[in-house]
Design brief:
- The protein is mostly helical.
- The protein has one domain.
- It is built from 12 helices and no strands.
- α2 packs across α3, α3 runs parallel beside α11 and α8 packs antiparallel against α10.
């Protein structure tokens, strides 16, 4: 936790935001409702997903292998149902032989938290410097302030009822991505963990509802890009199988050999001669 609060990435992310903001201001014809800093924040989310792509792909391959060995895990549970220690040893051996890393998702999660805390501090630094004030994104009037909602600055709301639309999208996207990342498992510990993780998006919503909307924008873009990246990797791991084309019924006229034709002609002449003789 101390490492996250004294984040070494804060300075890097601060300089990256300033640099990307300059590029967006110079090269992109942005409408008044989309500020250059909002483009910079979304670009940071895209760059983080590009950099962590190898880790995400490895995590997804490990998840797929984990789903494939679930029948074997159930067999081990039946075999060692009275000895949890032997079951744990046999399960770890199965993971080793199958090339499954049960902790493969930890490193991407840690990196995600490090960047999230670093970006929070970078946004606060920009707010203190006064450069983020008035930077808007669609219905968000100021990226340095919370998204207007009934619990935080409702007087700034541009939408009726001060509904925090971005936070709703963030929660929905996180739930969907979490559903992709939680394959069905027969392991009681994995099931308990999955049950606990179901409530994480709601906890995030409670925390983010008073944080700068620029951070909510980053995390929402991060979730949406993660979903697209997951579907892309899943398509590569499971390429669609081409269905064999159905053979059309044959309409060709059956061929008749010359020998058969000659025999028919000879036989027909014999019958005519017999008829003439009678």
């Amino acid at each position: 936790m101390i490492f996250l609060l004294s984040n070494p990435f804060t300075g890097i992310l601060h300089e990256a935001l300033v640099l990307l903001n300059q590029y967006a201001t110079q090269w992109l014809p942005l409408p008044p409702s989309i500020s250059s800093y909002s483009v910079a924040i979304v670009t940071i989310a895209l760059l983080v997903k590009v950099v962590t792509y190898p880790l995400t792909a490895a995590q997804q391959r490990s998840m797929r292998k984990m789903a494939e060995i679930q029948p074997k895990i159930r067999e081990l549970q039946e075999l060692h149902k009275d000895d949890r220690e032997k079951f744990a040893q046999a399960q770890m051996e199965l993971f080793r032989t199958a090339g499954v890393n049960p902790f493969g998702g930890c490193l991407p999660l840690v990196l995600q938290l490090v960047v999230l805390f670093g970006l929070y501090q970078a946004i606060n630094r920009l707010q203190v410097e006064g450069v983020l004030a008035g930077q808007r994104f669609l219905w968000l009037p100021d990226l340095s302030l919370c998204e207007p909602n009934p619990f935080c600055r409702p007087e700034l709301a541009l939408l009726p009822g001060a509904i925090p639309v971005l936070i709703v999208v963030m929660v929905a996207s996180q739930m969907l991505y979490q559903r992709y990342l939680t394959p069905p498992s027969t392991d009681p510990q994995a099931q308990a963990m999955a049950q606990t993780m179901k409530y994480m998006p709601l906890i995030f919503a409670f925390v983010f509802i008073t944080l700068p909307s620029g951070l909510v924008l980053y995390y929402t873009a991060f979730n949406l890009i993660s979903i697209a990246q997951y579907l892309l990797i899943d398509r590569r791991l499971n390429p669609p199988v081409a269905q064999p084309a159905a053979s059309a019924p044959s309409t060709a006229t059956p061929t008749v050999s010359r020998k058969e034709t000659r025999n028919d002609i000879v036989q027909s002449r014999r019958q005519r001669r017999k008829g003439t003789g009678n």
